[in-house]
Specification:
Blueprint (H helix, E strand, L loop, with lengths): L3 H23 L8 H11 L2 H8 L8 H26 L4 H12 L8 H20 L3 H17 L5 H11 L1 H18 L7 H22 L11 H25 L9 H9 L6 H9 L4 H26 L3
Length: about 325
């Protein structure tokens, strides 16, 4: 299989979306404040269609698929003490620790990076399993994601009640969740899949990923990097060394190496080689923490992830 076109497609979509969004803000075509409502609209009304189609292709005969969300939850929680140790070594104060830990724990594993790269590397089934992998994301973000930094600043937020409320009432969370459940139901009930599904996914995935990355590009500010070089360096080690070590270790314990084709292992590998997630910045901003530190960590890890996408596709193609 010729992997070069896949690598070019992934890098073009990721780099193109971020660059066009960044230029649009710098030239004054769109204000940075457009990013949040645009992202919410795209998540609510564009992302559900590819999620349904992808989940429809999920292999439901292998119990190991159910272990993917478990790996996600475990590796995310284990990143907390790892990030806290790094923050102590850097001698960050409590407010800096509270801003540093969320980007370390939560990664860009959705349509704007991890799931998109899984789709490019492995097709609709790769996207389906990548989506299943991050199924607990919202619940984890609005419980653990707020509780952990709250420990450092003596503040607690809505926890489980907030997570449930957000998932049911906010369309940008409710609609993708309903799409995931609908696609999973189609897979479990073995509803025959029309021939056009794969072709439609080939159109929808790059378009939706580009649009979401465009919205992220509207928020990029390169000037935040130089003031937080120590934290930025530590974040790269956490995201691209510690995180994949945890994920691959857990996958090994569950016997993923024994699966023919190593499909589940490839998903875990890609999803744990991911940069800081945008929603981690929302946690930092909601708690009134030092957002420049978190922004610098998010921006640099996501810039590094652009060429890394090509490497991941090449490596998974040879596993």
């Amino acid at each position: 299989m010729d992997l070069f076109p896949k690598v070019i497609e992934a890098i073009s979509v990721i780099l193109g979306g971020l660059t066009v969004g960044y230029i649009a803000r710098r030239r004054g075509w769109l204000p940075g404040s457009t990013a949040e409502p645009l992202t919410c609209w795209l998540l609510a009304y564009v992302s559900p269609a590819p999620i349904v189609l992808a989940m429809w292709t999920l292999p439901v005969d292998d119990w190991k698929a159910a272990a993917l969300p478990l790996i996600y939850v475990t590796q995310t929680i284990l990143l907390w003490p790892a990030a806290a140790l790094a923050a102590n070594i850097l001698r960050l104060d409590n407010t800096e620790k509270a801003a540093f830990i969320p980007p370390a724990m939560f990664s860009n594993q959705g349509f704007t990076y991890g799931s998109f790269v899984c789709y490019i590397a492995m097709g609709p089934q790769g996207l389906a399993m990548a989506t299943l992998y991050i199924l607990p994301f919202s619940l984890l973000l609005f419980t653990v994601g707020f509780a952990v930094p709250g420990r450092y600043i003596a503040r607690q937020d809505g926890g489980l009640r907030r997570a449930i409320t957000e998932s049911l009432t906010r369309s940008y969370r409710r609609n993708p969740l309903l799409a995931l459940l609908a696609g999973l139901a189609l897979a479990l009930w073995r509803v025959p899949q029309p021939e056009f599904v794969v072709g439609l996914l080939e159109l929808l995935m790059p378009v939706s990923a580009f649009a979401l990355l465009f919205a992220i590009g509207l928020t990029m500010r390169l000037s935040t990097i130089r003031d937080h070089l120590g934290s930025v360096t530590a974040m790269h080690l956490l995201k691209f060394v510690v995180q994949p070590a945890l994920g691959i270790g857990l996958a090994t314990l569950l016997g993923f190496w024994s699966q023919p084709g190593h499909m589940f292992l490839k998903v875990v590998f890609i999803q744990t080689m991911t940069p800081a997630g945008l929603m981690s910045l929302a946690v930092v901003q909601a708690l009134g923490l030092k957002s420049n530190l978190a922004n610098a960590c998010w921006l640099t890890t996501n810039l590094v992830a652009i060429p890394l996408a090509g490497v991941l596709i090449w490596l998974t193609g040879r596993l």
